[in-house]
């Protein structure tokens, strides 16, 4: 990639200060897409704008054959450097400039730009685009920055018989007279003014299901929005469109009421696409989603809930992000935090998933807390100097911490003021770009509160505070209850104590008719600020068995249980009736495990003991994944083998004891399959499930479960290549091909590791999904000895990986191949571990490496240090 591909914020500011865009007309010729030998597609852009500078540039990552500036042909080779098309001699008198760029873009296999996928079931080609933050330039020539909005007219030539979608409905679809296979031209209506990264084209023989949503407009008219849901033809039998459309209508109705700004984009298509790099993308009127939301195998309620959450997240973006767009990627959080918050809020307010905040507390916040303790964390409002930094900022801070902070803001200003502020913001900034100041101004106006200090402490500092309760008790009564806070910004090293609007729950053990229950007797809501805040209302109340700080999860902070609370949780966590409270206690226990305060083995015991009482499948699934991480990364090496066996056996027992056909049964089955990959002795049961010798009533032996069992057998050397090939014959789908690759890559042989390594490092060798599958096989936690020889080649290859692969793929390789499974030797310190020292050595020798690459390596080292510290603490506890 050319060095000028990494557009800087300074350049973007300079460019937008001088340009005003009116329209792009983009013509893409996709008629050759069905021919795998064709690597490129013709692309023509005609852009109209006024300028106050004679010189600027367009962005394009492809091949340029012709450039015309105001009817004047320009020598393409002399103005194009592989990333930018330099434009000279522009009119600066206020009249229009018209620039035409002809060239060709590359079909993508990495999910960036125009991705092409061929379905192994029917050999049909499926295309879709994915641009955020800056990949529209892989498809057409653009001014690639969010604040240069324009209207877009797309024209697409495609094989007859295909469907073609874009942000707007087609205005004209006509057959074109050509030699060879029949071709159809699709011309789409001009869009409203929008950013380049939000444009979209989807093309292929997609299957559709249609619906409609309508609502009354203020003037008495009716707004009608056509709805369609799309997926590959071979997945059509699994597409539960009715369920998806129901959530869609619920969401549109909710936002229509709450935002008081009619849905602005005409129609609403939702397309489930193959080999997608993310959950979904909010292209106005044409949202794209990962195909894993089309459930080919049995799915838990948590999976349906996650899908509904994503649908509502993307839909919120139609207003927040699409209608009003952050000016540059520093303010990415403005739209992502808001959408993430809305995904849960609208789930609760408008759908059957009224408990969505529980999963949020357990899963999303865990992501945020993890990231916010890394040395590379950043304030919610980030400093994003260029596009490579932007690409890495789609992280746990921008999404989950930002949404958590918004949740705290709602508690702080009140929900009425919050939504009134949002309405004013949409009304004032529609079709424009904004920064943080614009949102705060709207919220200050509606809440009457000065948010300057709040924003500085919550949005412009990094790190998570730790909150705990200090409860003094005498004669069965509380004498004093103090909430303590400590917090350090990992970026500046300075103490940061924030204001928290929060609740503290006091819980008692009592018989509630269904047996012993842990029940909340008092809820104290308070403003906590500074290092210690006494809750005076608690004095004189009966001494509780458990004090839960941040009950109801209003604020964002790590919470510690006090010794009495920890004892209660150990014995009675399953008796805590409230799902959100249980989730918060689980979160405190996991944070304590990660911080080497609770031995990993004890966490595993707690999951096995109290997991069966967990009714929320999202929480339960999270617990089983955490238990596995605890065993592989945080347990001392001397203990690991026993813990692995205990987890596999425990998961099996709970699987067989669970109610037939329940979500819990499915979650424990998945946990068993994952655990069996490190316990050769569990292979008999895995094989028994596959061949029917072991029967578990109600358990669906569908493709997902079958493949995970095969992968376990492969990883433990209990399955042959021929058996894996036979399973692929049974399931020759796209997903089957990917799962087969993961299983084959999991075979425990030096030759397999060598082959995995070679294909992974070869640029363009694998698609995005196949990269993930191969890494998963290569890095099987049980294969530490087989992969140890690759530690040194990893460090030697890092810079080459970064330059030879796209940033999307390079990031996966850097993260996935890092030698993160390491054992701490007793009596040592984590910092002295050879893998840590080798990483530090690389960082010192490569200070000039790209910042985005260094960030990944620094994070990998920090995760390793955390694992080693937990192992060492666990080993000390054992003695
Ligand atoms: Zn989003």
From TrEMBL:
Q: Is the keyword Membrane in the record? A: no
Q: Where is the Peptidase M1 membrane alanine aminopeptidase domain?
A: 245-458
Q: Which residues form the Aminopeptidase N-like N-terminal domain?
A: 117-198
Alphabetical GO biological process terms: peptide catabolic process; proteolysis
The UniProt catalytic activity note for this protein reads: Release of an N-terminal amino acid, Xaa-|-Yaa- from a peptide, amide or arylamide. Xaa is preferably Ala, but may be most amino acids including Pro (slow action). When a terminal hydrophobic residue is followed by a prolyl residue, the two may be released as an intact Xaa-Pro dipeptide
First-tier enzyme category under EC: hydrolase
> Could you tell me the keywords of this UniProt record?
Aminopeptidase, Hydrolase, Metal-binding, Metalloprotease, Protease, Zinc
Family that this chain belongs to: Belongs to the peptidase M1 family.
Q: What is this protein called?
A: Aminopeptidase N
Give me the gene this protein comes from.
pepN
């Amino acid at each position: 990639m050319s060095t000028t591909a990494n557009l800087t914020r300074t350049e973007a500011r300079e460019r937008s200060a001088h340009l005003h865009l009116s329209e792009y007309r983009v013509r893409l010729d996709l008629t050759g897409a069905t021919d795998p030998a064709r690597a490129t597609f013709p692309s023509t852009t005609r852009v109209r704008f006024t300028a106050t500078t004679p010189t600027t540039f367009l962005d394009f990552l492809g091949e340029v054959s012709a450039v015309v500036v105001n009817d004047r042909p320009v020598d393409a080779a002399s103005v194009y450097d592989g990333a930018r098309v330099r434009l000279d001699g522009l009119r600066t008198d206020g009249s229009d400039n018209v620039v035409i760029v002809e060239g060709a873009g590359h079909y993508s296999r990495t999910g960036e730009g125009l991705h092409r996928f061929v379905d192994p079931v029917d050999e049909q080609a499926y295309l879709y685009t994915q641009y955020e933050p800056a990949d529209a330039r892989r498809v057409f020539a653009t001014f690639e920055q969010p604040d240069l909005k324009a209207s877009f007219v797309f024209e697409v030539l495609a094989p007859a018989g295909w469907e073609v979608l874009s942000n707007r409905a087609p205005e004209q679809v006509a057959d074109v007279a050509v030699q060879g296979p029949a071709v159809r031209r699709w011309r789409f209506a001009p869009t409203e003014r929008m950013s380049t990264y939000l444009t979209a084209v989807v093309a292929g023989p997609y299957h559709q299901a249609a619906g409609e949503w309508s609502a009354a407009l203020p003037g008495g008219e009716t707004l009608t929005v056509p709805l369609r849901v799309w997926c590959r033809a071979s997945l059509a039998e699994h597409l539960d469109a009715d369920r998806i459309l129901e959530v869609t209508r619920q969401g549109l109705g909710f936002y229509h009421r709450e935002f008081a700004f009619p849905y602005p984009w005409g129609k609403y298509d939702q397309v489930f696409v193959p080999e997608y790099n993310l959950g979904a993308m909010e292209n106005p009127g044409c949202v794209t989603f990962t195909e894993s939301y089309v459930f080919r195998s049995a799915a838990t309620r948590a999976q349906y809930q996650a899908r509904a959450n994503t649908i509502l997240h993307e839909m919120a973006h139609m207003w927040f992000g699409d209608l009003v767009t952050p000016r540059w990627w520093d303010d990415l959080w403005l739209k992502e935090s808001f959408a993430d918050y809305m995904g849960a809020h609208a789930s609760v307010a408008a759908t059957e998933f009224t408990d969505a905040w529980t999963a949020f507390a357990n899963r999303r916040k865990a992501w945020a807390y993890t990231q916010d303790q890394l040395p590379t964390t950043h304030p919610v409002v980030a400093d994003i100097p260029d596009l490579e930094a932007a690409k890495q900022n789609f992280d746990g801070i921008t999404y989950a911490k930002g949404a958590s902070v918004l949740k705290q803001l709602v508690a702080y200003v009140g929900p009425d003021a919050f939504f009134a502020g949002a309405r004013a913001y949409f009304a004032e900034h529609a079709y424009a770009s904004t920064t943080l100041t614009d949102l705060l101004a709207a919220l200050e106006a509606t809440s009457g509160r000065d948010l300057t200090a709040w924003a500085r402490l919550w949005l412009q500092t990094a790190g998570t505070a730790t909150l705990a309760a200090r409860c003094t008790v005498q004669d069965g009564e509380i004498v004093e209850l103090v909430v303590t806070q400590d917090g350090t910004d990992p970026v500046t090293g300075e103490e940061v104590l924030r204001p928290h609007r929060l609740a503290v729950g006091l819980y008692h053990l009592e018989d509630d008719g269904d047996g012993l229950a842990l029940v909340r007797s008092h809820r104290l809501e308070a403003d906590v600020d500074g290092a210690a805040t006494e809750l005076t209302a608690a004095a004189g109340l009966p001494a509780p068995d458990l004090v839960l700080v941040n009950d109801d999860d209003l604020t964002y902070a790590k919470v510690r249980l006090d010794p009495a609370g920890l004892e209660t949780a150990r014995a009675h966590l399953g008796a805590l009736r409230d799902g959100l409270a249980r989730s918060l206690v689980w979160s405190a226990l996991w944070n304590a495990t990660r911080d080497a305060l609770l031995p990993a083995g004890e966490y595993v015991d707690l999951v096995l003991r109290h997991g069966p009482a967990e009714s929320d499948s999202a929480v339960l699934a999270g617990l089983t994944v955490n238990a596995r991480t605890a065993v592989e990364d945080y347990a001392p090496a001397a203990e690991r083998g026993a813990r692995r066996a205990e987890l596999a056996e425990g998961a099996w027992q709970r699987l067989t004891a669970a109610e037939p056909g329940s979500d819990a049964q499915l979650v424990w089955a998945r946990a068993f399959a994952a655990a069996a990959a490190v316990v050769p002795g569990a292979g008999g049961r895995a094989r028994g499930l596959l061949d029917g010798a072991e029967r578990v009533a109600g358990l669906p032996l569908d493709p997902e479960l079958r493949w995970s069992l095969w992968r376990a057998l492969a990883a433990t050397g209990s399955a042959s290549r021929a058996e894996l090939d036979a399973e692929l014959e049974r399931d020759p789908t796209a997903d089957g091909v990917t799962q087969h690759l993961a299983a084959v890559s999991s075979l425990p042989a030096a030759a397999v590791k060598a082959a995995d390594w070679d294909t992974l490092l070869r640029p363009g060798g694998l698609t995005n999904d196949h990269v993930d599958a191969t890494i998963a096989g290569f890095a099987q936690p049980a294969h530490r000895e087989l992969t140890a020889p690759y530690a040194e080649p990893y460090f030697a290859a890092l810079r080459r990986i970064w330059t030879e692969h796209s940033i999307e793929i390079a990031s996966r390789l850097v993260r996935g191949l890092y030698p993160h499974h390491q054992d701490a030797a007793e009596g040592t310190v984590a910092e002295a571990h050879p893998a840590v020292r080798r990483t530090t050595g690389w960082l010192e020798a490569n200070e000039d490496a790209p910042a985005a690459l260094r960030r990944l390596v620094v994070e990998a080292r920090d995760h390793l240090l955390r694992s080693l510290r937990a192992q060492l603490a666990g080993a000390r506890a054992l003695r």
